[in-house]
């Protein structure tokens, strides 16, 4: 067992808690983002956009699609369907590499 704020935590205790050791509600993150969006007058800002950005960066950095899918709790097929556009630059690079290796005279 681990102790946080002098409280013994069990294996099945919540991961995210308030400073009063209460579990954070399932809609807390959405409420937080909506408050930030309103405060800073962001037109488009959501947890979904952050998720999409996170996955796009992982793919652009070469993380294997099956690993990305496992991290976000999705299938590799769904990741490919939704985030395949992130692979377009990598496909272009691969094509350019192949073209530079093949010299037809």
UniProtKB/TrEMBL annotation:
Molecular function terms, GO-annotated: DNA binding
PROSITE patterns: TYR_RECOMBINASE
Any GO BP annotation: DNA integration
Claim: Cell inner membrane is one of the keywords in the record: no
Keyword terms of this UniProt record: DNA recombination
Transmembrane regions: none
Hydrolase is among the record's keywords: no
SUPFAM superfamilies with a match to the protein in the record: DNA breaking-rejoining enzymes
Domain Tyr recombinase per the UniProt entry, residue ranges: 1-97
Annotated protein name in UniProt: Phage integrase family protein
Record organism: Lysinibacillus fusiformis
